[in-house]
Specification:
By secondary structure, the chain is of the alpha+beta class. The chain contains 13 helices and 21 strands. The chain has 3 domains: 183 residues, Alpha-Beta Complex (Adenine-n6-DNA-methyltransferase TaqI, Chain A, domain 2); 92 residues; 144 residues, DNA methylase specificity domains (Adenine-n6-DNA-methyltransferase TaqI, Chain A, domain 2).
Length: 475
């Protein structure tokens, strides 16, 4: 009976505790109930349903409406992985005309975006001073905070990203194959009342963190621009035509592929550019290994963190929600990613590359390949990671993985990916920029963790104790 959790509740208590009438036992776990009771025992308030909106449903806005540049940033789940920040990587835009059709989900600076579906539920990110405003996809919830001060908005964001906010939000997930949140679920989460002075302390940390994060993003984007410049790649010169005339000899006869998407003119343009550069196939540059797929029956809350594609972005790994037993396979430590290993996604969101900055005690999904550079004197890991995330490889991923409902990039095709090799001095410049970007990002993330710890400490031991602790952390 070890590990068995039982709790008997009266129906009247269940009905009072849950206006949406939930009967699943997970909702009434001891942790969820004790956390809710703890927060409710303190001065608190709830957001009004007027504060929350959903992104456009159904056919209101299709991906064909997305623009590389435009009037209105359009935030999707991939832009808020990890929480707190809206990443500009892969950010798309919509026109002001589209925005007028979905004006209800338009957000302003310091409003919050919450991811509501799939394995990425529970990321709260802020509309920052660079974006100033945005709209959101149907997989997100917008939290409008008009009427709160800037400092209060930052404290609310930090609380939602704390362990208390996460426990109370994630208990409201429903569905199994595709878990989701309802739009008004966030309105049932009690929010502690924080004093103005404490909110100001948290806000100062958030603003300082934002400065470092913007610097990190700017440096990374400049490194990417420098890379494409040295490769003579100009996205404006890549064909947007969708029609190409090919012979059977030059298509199926060479590749075995008959799907029309594979032969779009933009891919010809890409390989014409690559033909003028020094290149190598990916498998000649790296050793490629694959992890395991233990199956959902191994998923739990105790053991070794299990990293899935949804947990990985080009800038890092978010805290995984799933763990697997240490005895899932023998010598499981051999699966732990080592420093400078490049994790590369081959399923779902294909072509995401992230270079591990230190040895990790985690296991990755089989959908994440592990690359290890064979000769760092020839090619630097930071340079290769940037190339993998650039248009140069992303177009190759689009070509190879097209034609499927759920994208899958075959390892046999990934091995053939063409990698341009710049002179070592240019690689070094790029690598130094990437390292600088990640240093700035780590500073930003450290400050965020300080803010979260301070909010949790204020809830547990009072704001005076939290402020004293903050003075030892940020001065």
């Amino acid at each position: 009976m070890d590990g068995l959790e039982c709790k008997e509740l009266l129906f009247s208590i269940v009905k009072k505790a849950n206006k949406s009438t939930r009967f699943d036992p997970e909702y009434y776990s001891k942790l969820a109930l004790s956390t809710e009771s703890f927060i409710l025992s303190k001065p608190h308030y709830f957001l009004d349903t007027r504060n929350v909106v959903s992104g456009p449903f159904g056919s209101t806005l299709k991906s064909s409406s997305y623009l590389e540049k435009g009037d209105v940033p359009f935030v999707r789940i991939e832009n808020i992985k990890g929480g707190f920040y809206i990443s500009r990587s892969n950010l798309v835009y919509i026109s002001s005309f589209d925005n007028s059709r979905i004006a209800n989900s338009q957000l302003s600076e310091d409003d919050i975006v919450l991811s509501k579906v799939g394995n990425s539920i529970g990321f709260f990110a802020r509309v920052d001073s660079v974006l100033k405003g945005c709209n959101i996809s149907e997989n997100n919830i917008g939290i409008k905070l008009e009427g709160f001060s800037t400092a209060q908005k930052h404290a609310i964001l930090t609380y939602f990203n704390s362990k208390y906010g996460q426990i109370l939000l994630l208990r409201r997930r429903s569905g199994n194959a595709q878990p989701k949140l309802n739009v008004d679920d966030v309105c049932f989460i009690p929010i502690p009342v924080f004093g103005n002075g404490f909110c100001e302390k948290i806000s100062n940390i958030i603003i300082q963190s934002e400065m470092f994060m913007h610097q990190a993003q700017d440096i990374y984007e400049e490194a990417n621009r420098y890379l494409l410049l040295k490769l003579n790649y100009d996205a404006q010169k890549i064909s947007a035509d969708s029609i190409a005339v090919k012979t059977i000899t030059n298509t199926f006869g060479n590749t075995g592929r008959l799907d029309a998407e594979y032969y779009q003119p933009k891919f010809d343009d890409l390989f014409l550019i690559l033909s003028q550069l020094t290149t190598k196939s990916l498998d000649s540059i790296v050793t490629m290994t694959k992890s395991i797929e233990p199956g959902s029956e191994c998923y739990g809350e105790i053991g070794i963190p299990f990293i899935r594609v949804s947990d990985v972005s080009i800038t890092g790994i978010s805290n995984p929600t799933i763990k697997i037993p240490e005895n899932t396979v023998s010598s499981i430590e051999s699966l732990f990613p080592k420093k400078d290993t490049i994790l590369f996604s081959k399923d779902g969101s294909v072509g995401i590359a992230y270079q591990v900055e230190e040895d990790l005690r985690v296991v990755t999904s089989g959908a994440l390949l592990h690359f290890k550079v064979k000769n760092t004197k020839e090619i630097l890991p930071e340079y290769l990671t940037l190339v993998l995330n650039s248009d140069i490889v992303q177009l190759q991923a689009e070509r190879d993985a097209s034609g499927a409902i759920i994208q899958h990039w075959k390892p046999s095709d990934i091995k053939k990916v063409t990698i341009p090799i710049l002179p070592h001095e240019h690689q070094k410049e790029i690598a130094d920029s990437v390292k600088s970007s990640f240093t700035k990002r780590r500073k930003a993330e450290k400050l965020i963790q300080v803010a979260i710890n301070a909010v949790e400490l204020a809830i547990e031991n009072g704001e005076d104790a939290a402020i004293k602790w903050l003075e030892t952390q940020v001065g």
